[in-house]
Specification:
With about 325 residues, the chain is α/β, with parallel strands linked by helices. Helices cover about 35% and strands about 15% of the residues. The protein has helices at about 45-60, 75-85, 100-105, 115-120, 145-150, 165-180, 190-200, 215-220, 265-280, 285-290, 300-320; strands at about 35-40, 65-70, 90-95, 120-130, 130-135, 160, 185, 205-210, 225, 255-260. The two termini are about 25 Å apart. It comes from Neoroseomonas terrae. Belongs to the UPF0065 (bug) family.
Length: about 325
């Protein structure tokens, strides 16, 4: 997000803090074990892509076997609960989506779970502008002309999301507020269902991280309107930025990151964070992400914890301004 807030001092052993380890954990403390990386959404979306991008090399770096497990349901609550109920020994981790960890909590969209309290940051995987797309039958070739079309047809065009509090929902509602347009919200359970209706022309507008959309844009099944940043995406040089389309500083980047549940010793979390950064330094992984339209952006655990806190508060402010609710 682009709203700048003062750095908050967060108490407790949750995502906002990573205390200095009281116990020295050996680098091989997870060696020989099976680590489950939970994706709280169906296969085929950005969270799933990010998890599978790192799972095999991350496990290898730890001397372990890492498997990806999709646990969708309840606006990601099912997957989050499965991680929190698992033993806090480092063998069950979460691949977290920015909306689940910041936007949904800001509007009360994940029940009693509080990511800042219940999870510890390990490190970021990718950080990428969203790609705005429409079906080729829609008479708009860029964001500016789509906004003009929406103003001509108030309440007649729709947009898809992965449910209340998702980046597709929060981001599009914020765009509606900024542009002064009226689009109808159509929530879906996952990216796969959304894309099928996009390709069929039943959905007029959608924003998401580039990986699931880029191949469809390249083969002409979808039309790219813009990316949500002030600058063009280096992997999509022909797609204009939102700033070029008269909509600067949207601040709608999508990021994915690894989290550990509360109770995992801080020293082990620090070791996981270090190993994840080592994995993401590999050029082959960076190239694989880039080819799909994603940008690898490793971080320290502390930087990720700060980002979660800052963006949660930013989304609270935006939700109040744009009248966004979990309903």
């Amino acid at each position: 997000m682009n709203i700048q807030l003062s750095r908050r001092s967060l108490l407790g052993a949750g995502v906002g803090t990573l205390a200095a380890p009281g116990i020295a954990w050996a680098q091989g403390s997870l060696a020989g074990k099976t680590i489950t990386l939970v994706v709280p959404s169906p296969a085929g979306g950005g969270t799933d892509f990010s998890a599978r991008l790192v799972a095999e090399p991350f496990g290898r770096a730890l001397g372990a076997t890492m498997v990806v497990e999709n646990r969708p349901g309840g606006n990601d609550v099912v997957g989050l609960q499965s991680v929190l109920r698992a033993p806090a020994d480092g063998t069950t981790l979460l691949c977290g989506y920015c909306a689940t960890m910041t936007a949904r909590p800001a509007i009360g969209g994940i029940g009693e779970i509080q990511p800042i309290r219940d999870f510890q940051a390990v490190g970021q995987i990718t950080d990428t502008p969203q790609l705005f797309v429409t079906h080729p039958s829609v008479p708009a070739t860029d964001l500016r002309s789509f906004i003009a079309l929406a103003k001509q047809r108030p309440g007649q065009l729709n947009y898809a999301s992965a449910g209340s509090g998702s980046m597709h929902h929060m981001g599009t509602e914020y765009l509606k507020h900024r542009a002064g347009i009226d689009l109808v919200h159509v929530p879906y359970r996952g990216t796969g269902e959304t894309i099928r209706d996009l390709i069929a022309g039943r959905i007029q507008f959608y924003m998401n991280s580039p990986p699931p959309l880029t191949p469809l844009v390249r083969d002409g099944q979808l039309r790219a309107l813009c990316v949500s940043s002030n600058e063009r995406h280096p992997g999509l040089p022909d797609v204009p930025s939102a700033a070029e389309q008269g909509m600067p500083d949207l601040g709608l980047n999508v990021w994915f990151a690894v989290f550990a549940p509360r109770g995992v010793p801080a020293g082990q979390v620090a070791m996981l964070s270090e190993k994840l950064r080592e994995v993401l330094a590999d050029q082959g992984i960076r190239d694989r992400a880039f080819a799909a339209g994603a940008l690898v952006a490793p971080s320290t655990a502390e930087a990720l914890a700060d980002r979660v806190a800052r963006e949660t508060e930013s989304w609270r402010q935006i939700a109040r301004t744009a009248n966004i609710t979990a309903g």
